[in-house]
């Protein structure tokens, strides 16, 4: 069986320049390690807030690395250089707006500025791409909300079966594969 690969893309001018450590990308890896019982490998990249560079990173992880899931962090807000949702939409075949909608609703429990995130999700080939905000604490807040739907989404794309630790996160699969 081929290994499950998951892409993590940190989009931040300062983290990519080494001004600060990328805490958010590592938080994604730690959270997925908590959730998943299945063995998986991360494909990890830090990029600046440049639309073409973000697009190339997503395309490489989807088309070449064959990541079933790609999670981005950062660049989703109204700051002028924030273009991660635009890069995501540009490379996706189809969008799944419910991810962004649910993450914003859940995030409102933590911060009134949750509505500032334009985060979205979409499909490219056999990859699901999900945007998260940049703040380290937003990673778990958002992933806890939407991850229960992720394994079934990947099932429906004929991707690998993601087995989760149900004491940590309960995936919902309406139909057995
Ligand atoms: N990847 C990250 N790792 C650690 N902290 C982060 C990360 N991204 C954002 N933050 C924190 O969240 C704050 C708000 O993030 P902001 O939206 O300004 O993104 P940023 O990536 O820092 O911006 P820029 O791309 O201009 O460097 C930052 O000041 C920083 O403290
Ligand atoms: N769960 C959660 N969502 C959140 C936040 C947060 O702290 N927690 N921060 C908000 C803020 S302050 C901003 S500006 C937007 C966009 O963040 P980004 O530009 O770093 O992606 O995400 C929002 N969503």
Question: Describe it for me?
Answer:
InterPro entries: MoaB/Mog-like_dom_sf (IPR036425), MoaB/Mog_dom (IPR001453), MPT_Adenylyltrnsfr/MoaC-Rel (IPR051920). Its EC number is 2.7.7.75. One of its GO terms (molecular function) is molybdopterin adenylyltransferase activity. Pathway: Cofactor biosynthesis; molybdopterin biosynthesis. The structure is a single chain. The chain has one domain: MoaB/Mog-like domain (Molybdenum Cofactor Biosythetic Enzyme, Chain A). It starts with a strand and ends in a 21-residue tail after the last helix. The radius of gyration is 15 Å and the shape is globular. Strand 5 and strand 6 (127-132) form a beta hairpin. The protein has a six-stranded mixed beta sheet with strand order 2-1-3-6-5-4, with helices on both faces. The protein contains seven helices and six strands. It is an alpha/beta fold. Residues 10, 12-15, 20, 22-25, 49, 73-74, 77, 79, 134-136 line the site of adenosine-5'-triphosphate.
Compact description:
By secondary structure, the chain is of the alpha/beta class.
Notable traits:
alpha/beta, 6 strands, 19% strand, molybdopterin adenylyltransferase activity, MPT_Adenylyltrnsfr/MoaC-Rel, transferase, binds the ligand Nc1nc2c(c(=O)[nH]1)N[C@H]1C(S)=C(S)[C@@H](COP(=O)(O)O)O[C@H]1N2, Molybdenum Cofactor Biosythetic Enzyme, Chain A, 177 residues, nucleotidyltransferase
């Amino acid at each position: 069986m081929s290994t499950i690969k998951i892409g993590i893309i940190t989009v931040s001018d300062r983290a990519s320049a080494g001004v600060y450590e990328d805490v958010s990308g590592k938080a994604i890896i730690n959270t997925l390690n908590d959730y998943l019982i299945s063995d998986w490998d991360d494909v990890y990249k830090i990029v600046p807030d440049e639309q073409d560079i973000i697009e190339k990173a997503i395309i490489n992880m989807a088309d070449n690395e064959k990541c079933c899931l790609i999670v981005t962090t950062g660049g989703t807000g109204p700051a002028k250089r924030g273009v991660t949702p635009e890069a995501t939409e540009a490379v996706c075949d189809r969008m799944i707006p419910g991810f962004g909608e649910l993450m914003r609703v859940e995030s409102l429990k933590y911060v009134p500025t949750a509505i500032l995130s334009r985060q979205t999700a979409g499909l490219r080939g056999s990859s699901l791409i999900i945007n998260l905000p940049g703040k380290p604490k937003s990673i778990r807040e958002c992933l806890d909300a939407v991850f229960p739907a992720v394994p079934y989404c990947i099932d429906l794309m004929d991707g690998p079966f993601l087995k989760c630790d149900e004491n940590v996160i309960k995936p919902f699969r309406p139909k057995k594969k």
